[in-house]
Amino acid sequence: MTKDPHGTALSFTRPTWVEINQANLAANFRLVKQLVGAQVKILAAVKADAYGHGMEPMARALAGCGADVLGVASADEALALSQAGIRTPVLILGLVSTDAERRRAVSVSAEVTVADYSGARLLQRAVPAGRRVVVHVKVDTGMGRLGMWHSEAVAQVRKIKALSRLTIGGLYTHFSSADTDARFTREQIRRLEAIVNELAGVGIRIPLVHAANSSAVLRQPAAFFTMVRPGLMLYGMSPLAAGRTRAWLKPVLSFKTRIAFLKTVGKGRSISYGRTFIAPRRTLIATIPVGYADGYRREFSSQARVLVRGRYARVVGRVCMDQTMIDVGHIPGVHVGDSVVLIGSQAGKRITAEQLAAWAHTIPYEITCAISRRVPRIYR
Ligand SMILES: Cc1ncc(COP(=O)(O)O)c(C=O)c1O
Questions:
Q1: Which of 9, 82, 258, 370 has the fewest other C-beta atoms within 10 Å?
Q2: What mean pLDDT comes out for the span 42-54?
Q3: pTM metric for this prediction
């Protein structure tokens, strides 16, 4: 029986689904290990439902592969992993900024990001007497998001260290442009190194120092420190332009559907809302049961291709909420019920999330994160 990410038996009848290849996930994890070496720990990012792949099964699989830490976005995601019985340490990468979040993070023994001393003090108040919470201090070396500015880090770390219910387990930063700007990334690395060295000079040694996302794992060995934090590459997608390195990475997610309806249309007939596509010749149009409510984005209208019977077929006209039309006039023997690959491979041809991202002028992260909950995930 097919199970959803919560382990509940699924009985779906609409033929639109996602398949997750766990062997490929494991291969990508091994690649990270090979690149960073045995001494460097790995935090596997499973936040945002593991980039749409299903947080609990991916967390369980990655923990089984040897992930040292799992990275989530919020205390609620940490709770979900705890309730699923996953015992690998969890670091909340987002900021717990309300009392309710702080209490929840403490109650599930998650490791918590602190971005400054005042936040650390608020966290300390949520920790019951006799307990300690592991925190990772977040430093802004150029991302401009969470964290204290790097030049203030040493002073703030010293103050945070004095808080009796917190243990500093990590110090980290995040790169703004590891995929596009190696020079600025090296500057961010230098800023983090300077903090580590200065802290060592006053006798403070932080166990985990981390910075590298997938782009940096692939091309910035100086960023490895004592732990790396890949997400995207574990799921087989490349963070680098034009899918460079894709050959090393094995795709994990396939998105599939089946032809629901077929109709011959004459030259000049229009397809879908707004009549943006007018048939240039007599052709065969298939309707497939997938639309923007499933995460098959409206930007794919008259742009994206799918695979049918091992051949590429073009999306024609606007993608609707629950349905999309494709031109299959050039493909012999097409039938209702034929399998349609939206992301994945068929007969040696492939459509990647990176390609769909290019069609929608976005990034592959957004493509897989956007596949909606109504699309069942099948784990193989
Ligand atoms: C703080 C942090 N670390 C690590 C990652 C993983 O990045 P990537 O998926 O590019 O490897 C992310 C993702 O956005 C992040 O926000």
A1: 9
A2: 98
A3: 0.95
